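User: Could you check the structure of this?
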Amino acid sequence: MEKLEFFKGNIISIYIVRHPEVENALLKVFNGSLDVGLSENGLAQAKKLKEFFKDKGIKKIFSSPLKRCLNTASIIQEALSCELVIDSRLKERNFGIFESLSWQEIEKNYPIEAKNFLKDPFNFKIKNGESFFDVYNRVKSFLEELDFSEHTLIVAHGGVNRVMIKHFMDLKNEKILSISQDFACINHFLTDGNFFLAKLINGVL
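Assistant: Sure, the predicted structure tokens are below.
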């Protein structure tokens, strides 16, 4: 039985979506702050998300300014009568010297950095980039300003979604890479602004 007795006030839905497939997905590289667009399959996934959310009562959409998210949010908004807010704090983690490289290339070109990344993924700060701790701090400031009075959709990135899920579920820092976020996945929480109940994590249509 769901522990709805923990809720003290109005219960609303928070949906967190990762952007759909990107145009360079087959390369399996770290895009991070690179502004890549959606692939044809990604556009089809965005349209499926549009159908899914058309009857969910969403009152506001927040999106990263990067076009893989903003294009997705705009497509979903077509089926809704709601405001779309762009917030730079939802941008993907800046992967610095790892940007545009595959993990195999990272291990080959930056073996020490790759080892340190896996050893402490939350706190390790990539050269010229950010740590998950940095991302968490900026995303936390966004969440602290969020109005938990209406059904809300957040369209962001794998790394950003992971720190939001970590925050809502009060997970330990080292669990950050244990959270899978596939292209176009949906995460759903019920909340009264204090208690968060996870209804769905990494759900794919």
